[in-house]
Every structure is written in C-alpha cells, then in structure tokens.
Amino acid sequence: MTTPPLSDRVRLRRRHDRGGYDATTLYPILDAMPMCSVGYVFDGHPYVTPTLQWREGGDVFWHGSSASRMLQAVDTAEVCLTVAILDGFVMARSGFHHSTNYRSVMLLGTARKVSDPDEKEARLKAFVDGNFPGRWDILRPPLAQEMKGTTVLTMPIREASSKVRTGPPKDDDEDYALPIWAGVIPVRMEVLDPVPDPRNLEGVEPPEHILNFRLD
Amino acid sequence: MTTPPLSDRVRLRRRHDRGGYDATTLYPILDAMPMCSVGYVFDGHPYVTPTLQWREGGDVFWHGSSASRMLQAVDTAEVCLTVAILDGFVMARSGFHHSTNYRSVMLLGTARKVSDPDEKEARLKAFVDGNFPGRWDILRPPLAQEMKGTTVLTMPIREASSKVRTGPPKDDDEDYALPIWAGVIPVRMEVLDPVPDPRNLEGVEPPEHILNFRLD
Fold first, then answer.
1. Among A99, A115, A161, B107, which one is least packed by beta carbons within 10 Å?
2. B2 to chain A nearest CA, in Å?
C-alpha cells in the first residue's frame, strides 16, 4: 500500500509501522497545519525557524521578509522542513511506554526562491486563499515594494516521510493486570471566535472565510 | 528591562520589539509547551526532529530511544532547539500585514547525554511529574533495560532568544479607512476529556493529574 521512499535519508530506521512515504499520507498532514519548522545550516551551525507553509500540488512553499536571515540562508541551500501535529498524550502503565499521538512530516530538499514576480504573487494569493477562501481579492492590493520585500521559497515534496501514532498505550502484557489508569489525553488546536480590530469601520462584519476558518 | 543576548547568534536582526533574552520571557514559553523541534547537522545535512522537552532550572532536556538516529547524532554536537506556540492568525487590511500571534524560543548549544543512571532516572521522573504531578510513583517502576534503552539529552539555556507577537494587525495608516474586516482569529491547544484505555481494570478511575492536566 505504501510507496517505498525515494531516498534512504528519509526511510524510518525504527517503528516502520508508523511510517508513510506517499502523497496520501503526506499531503493531508501538510494541509492540516500551516505551522512548520525549517531547519538549515548556516556557517556550519544548525538553525530551526518556525514559519508557515502551504502546499500546491507536489510543492511546498513558505515565505517571509526578504531581510530574514533564514530566507537568505536557505535559497539554493538544503533544508529540512517538518510539520508536527500533537494529537494526544499517551498515558501508559510504565514510564517507558508513555508516548504521544501525533502526525508528522519531514521533507528534505533544496529550497529555491520563486523569482518570477507574477508567480510569486500567485503563490501568495494561493497561501491566503487556501486558508481564507476569497480573502485575497477583498484586500488592498499589494504594492511593488511589498512584493519586493517578501521572499517566497519552494521545494518539491520528493524526499519525504510521514510518521503517525494513534490509539491507546501499548503496555507490556503483564502490566495490564496493574490497577493503574491508562489511556489518552487528546489535544487539538482550537479555533476561537474572531476578535475584531478595534479600528474596524463601523458596520464591517467578519466575512465567511473568517467565520468558517478551521484547522484540520 | 531586557538582559542583552550573550551571543550574537541569537540576537534578533529584525523586529527587536518582539525579542527577549532573559529567563522571565524564555522560561514561561518553554514551560507552556512540551512540543519542540530539535535541529542538528548530520553528514553535513540539516535535520529537524519534533520531540518533547522539559526544563529544570536553567537546563532543558529531551529524550528518546537510545536507537534513535537523532539522539545518537546530537550527543556532544551542536543543536538548535525551538518551541513555537501559535496563538492566532492576524488578519490585516493588506496581504503584506497579515501575520500570526505566537510565542517562540530558540536555544542554541551543545547537547550532552545524561550518563549517570541515577540522574537519568531523576530527570525522567521530573519530566513525567512536571506534566502529571505524582504520576511517576504510581507507575510500574522502570526496568534496567528500559533505562538503558532511553537516552536523555540536555543543554544549558544560555544562547537563547524569545520572540513574541500579540495584539491586532498593524496596518498602513491609510488602509484603516478601508471597509475590510481586520482582527485576530485566536487559536490554542485544547485539552479534551481523557479517553480511558479499554483494557483498564474495572473501577480504576483517572487520578487528579489526568483530570487536571492543562497546557499553558
């Protein structure tokens, strides 16, 4: 059922039962959580920058200020982009078998800047509209200097693996006889009611893309 | 009010208003969210591994299987550990001023294994009890082979910075006149009701440390 990994670097060494390498497992995790971590090497040192990612087809994108050290460092450089969604704390009958339920993706590759201005604007529109359908067109259009000040990076989803854990704890057989409460404490990202900017004009109501916003 | 950074590597190049370098800003963020990302260099390539961290005094800890590639790679190696808590989506009147509210910490340093067995067990107890007070002592005690199969890593919280954004969007002055809904969509990690393991013994009820568990 699972496509074998294209690269030995992303192959799961342990817990093969938790791993996946195909679009069917990778894409829903990327699509469920914009927050990601981008790892890169700068001057020989490892750095990790939290940012937001979005996916279009088989490519992942992220963006930021053109002045950002991370964005300057990673153009045409190797990166490791991870998304990790915490789904619960797994409470076992021994400390050793405590765990978490989670969905995670690791992408390896070489990042490149989206340099064509039209493509860059189209990518940013897809980012905004992907999370908030229709928002791009109601916003004040971007200025040339804003587009210049924004860098969009991309990487193909090629060297990639997912890792997922679900379900109750897995204890040692003999430990199931112990009178210890075991189970899962589920957690999830909750989206709360939108808080209007105090400077909104009177009578401006939140559009559907604000009211309907969900994660997952 | 803010202690200057001890290292130029963690100094914020941009958005100094969002940065902090002292325990008062760093520790509450680390304590609010166990999930973290550990970045490291292996064979010259960047990797990021999501895992859980905990803090004792001025040191941060994380753990995993002794067979883990990450844990083997980072002993006495440089790492970058980040915690990032997403607090909201900041919806502005232009695409450019969209942002997120967040609390994040970046720690740089050299990881070392906790090799003394007694210290290792004490650290793991602090991890479990820090999140679930009193749980360690009601669990089946750890076996020697489990302790051997678990690696605990640590790093002093020394080269560190926090970055925080809160509040409404900051739009260009003239854009406040536009009839566009702006504001914040807050998000938070919600802790749901515990789900008992179907194999719990009859009459075993969840203890206080399960019922009272909170993030933040």
1. A115
2. 22
Q: B16-86+101-166: what CATH class?
A: mainly beta
Its pTM stands at 0.94
Chain B contact set for A136 (CB, 8 A)? 95
For B132-174, the pLDDT digits (tens) are 999 999 999 999 999 999 999 999 999 999 999 999 999 999 9
Contact A151, A65 (CB under 8 A): yes
Instruction: Name which of A50, A131, A207 is nearest B181 (Cβ-Cβ).
Output: A207
Cβ-Cβ contacts under 8 Å, B128 against chain A: 95, 98
**Nearest 10 degrees: CA dihedral of A168, B34, B187, B97?**
-140
User: B77: how many CB neighbours lie within 10 A of its CB?
Assistant: 15
Residue B96 CA to residue A191 CA, distance in Å, equals: 23
Instruction: Using an 8 Å CB-CB cutoff, list chain A residues near B41.
Output: 41, 44-46
Distance CA B150, CA B68 (A): 9
Q: Judged by CB atoms within 8 Å, which residues 23-52 of B form the interface with A? A: 35, 37-41, 44-50, 52
User: pLDDT at residue A122 above 90?
Assistant: yes
Question: Across chain B, what does the average pLDDT equal?
Answer: 93
The whole-number pLDDT of residue A4 equals 54
Dist. CA B19–CA A48, nearest whole Å: 16
pLDDT digits (tens, 9 = 90+) for B73-97: 888 899 999 999 999 999 999 999 9
Mean pLDDT of B189-205: 98
Q: What is the third-level CATH fold of A16-170+180-211?
A: Pnp Oxidase; Chain A (2.30.110)
Flag whether pLDDT at A21 surpasses 70.
yes
- The first and second tokens of residue B57, run together, are 């005094």
Is A190 touching B (CB cutoff 8 A)? yes
Quick check: A103 and A87 in contact, CB under 8 A? Answer: yes
Give contacts of A184 with chain B, Cβ < 8 Å: 194-195, 197
ipTM over 0.90: yes
